[in-house]
Structure formats: C-alpha cells, structure tokens
Amino acid sequence: MPPRQAIFGGTFDPPHAGHVAAAIHAREQLDVDLFHIVVANDPWQKSAERVVTPARHRLVMAQLAFRDIDGMAVSDLEIRRGGPTYTIDTVAELEKPGTETLLVMGPAAANGVSTWHRAAELAECVRLAVVQPRGAPPVHVEGWRTETVLMEPVEASATLVRELLTRRAHQEIPPQAVQLVPPAVMSYIVEHRLYSP
Ligand code: ATP
Asked: Which residues does a 6 A CB cutoff place in the pocket of ligand 1?
C-alpha cells in the first residue's frame, strides 16, 4: 500500500469533543503516516451565512484542542494562504508524489462535498474518509472513492457550543458546554471573551 496522509479540515469555531474523537478514530483506523488538522481561513460556505470567529483565534483553539494528542499537526497553511478556503488548493500544497491523500470528514460534510470548489478535480486526487457512527449505513458519495471510519457518536457541534455560550445568563459557563469543549479551549474562550452573551 502506498504511504498515506490525512487532512482533517474544519472551521473549528470552536473545536469540540466530536472533532477530537473523530480525529483520534481516523488516525487509528486509516493507517496514515501524517495527520494534518487544517483550520480554514474563510470557510466561504459558512461565512456567507454567519459571522465566523477570526481565524487567529480558531487556530489557537485548535492547537489547544489537539496539543496532547499524538501524531497530529495543526496547520495554519490555509490561514497563511488567505482568502476563501478551497480544499483543492490545500491538497495541491500538501500533495506528495506517490502518497495517497485522504480527506477526513463527518457524514454531513461528505454529503455536501460535491458542492465544493472544483469538486470534480478534487474527487480525482483524494479519497474521502467519512467518520460515522457505528451501525449507521455507510455513506457513499457518488463519484468519490470513500472509506469509512467508525466511532461511537459524540453529540457535539460547534453550533451547539456557540448557542450554549451566547445564550448563557450572566457570564456563567453552562455545564453542558464545559463537557463539550476541551478545558484549555474553554479557558481561551473565557479569556478572550469569545461567544459572549
Ligand atoms: P458547525 O456546527 O459550526 O457547522 P461543526 O461542529 O460541524 O461546525 P466544523 O469545524 O465545521 O465543525 O467541522 C469539521 C469537521 O468535523 C467536519 O467534517 C464535520 O463533519 C466534523 N464533525 C463535526 N462535529 C462532529 C462530531 N460530533 N462527530 C464527528 N465529526 C464531526
């Protein structure tokens, strides 16, 4: 089998327990030599809909979320490149001859991958590694080579964390949010007054 590298891209606004669990399971099951966590600069499909936290904060939060996990490198490559984030450009930068590239993502992201910039070209140069709950039918995305990573479901989303924090009464952090976000990330959120009510 050729050497393989994984790219786990996201907005990470903020990073949460679901991201961490997905990355750990993917690293364990995919047999990759390199595992890149890549923080989007401008996730154009999301930033059209809502205000996204500045990339510099999301980068630090991702570094804090993944700092104690072996074998993962948090990358600022999309932030350094600037502008709207297109995964095809990231793959072009990280690609190495003879190495297979896998894009790690959840089922919702996988179902939307054909709407990404230059999707047909992207489908030719990567495989998808779809992280999904055990027991669920495997996700197949037409036109893409797909592998499955199995995990116990983690009921977390960045949307839920943002909602819990922005809707909180006074400045108290809701216990549910504390459970969803790594402690170092929560300290950073508090210190920098992100997602304030
Ligand atoms: P939002 O709620 O703001 O849309 P998100 O929680 O989906 O954000 P992203 O940074 O957009 O977070 O996601 C990065 C990747 O992590 C995506 O491929 C997404 O499908 C995956 N992911 C997000 N939450 C989970 C989860 N709980 N379990 C597994 N994968 C997840």
From this structure: 10-13, 18-19, 22, 105-106, 108-109, 131, 154, 156-159
CATH classification of the domain holding 142: 3.40.50.620
Neighbours of 171 (CB within 10 A): 9
Q: Is residue 95 part of a domain?
A: yes
pLDDT tens column, 36-87: 999 999 999 999 999 999 999 999 999 999 999 999 999 999 999 999 999 9
Domain limits for position 35: 4-153
Q: What is the pTM of this model?
A: 0.97
Task: Write 75-79 long-range contacts (CB < 8 A, 24+).
Answer: 75/36, 75/37, 75/38, 75/39, 76/39, 77/38, 78/9, 78/38, 78/39, 78/40, 78/41, 79/39, 79/41, 79/55
The tally of domains found in the chain comes to 1
* Residue 188 belongs to some domain of the structure: no
Any domain includes 92: yes
In a domain, 171, yes or no: no
User: Closest by alpha carbon to 19, among 33, 39, 41?
Assistant: 39
Kindly report the protein residue whose alpha carbon is nearest to atom 19 of ligand 1: 106
> How high is the pLDDT of residue 159?
98
Examine the pLDDT at 138 and tell me if it is beyond 90: no
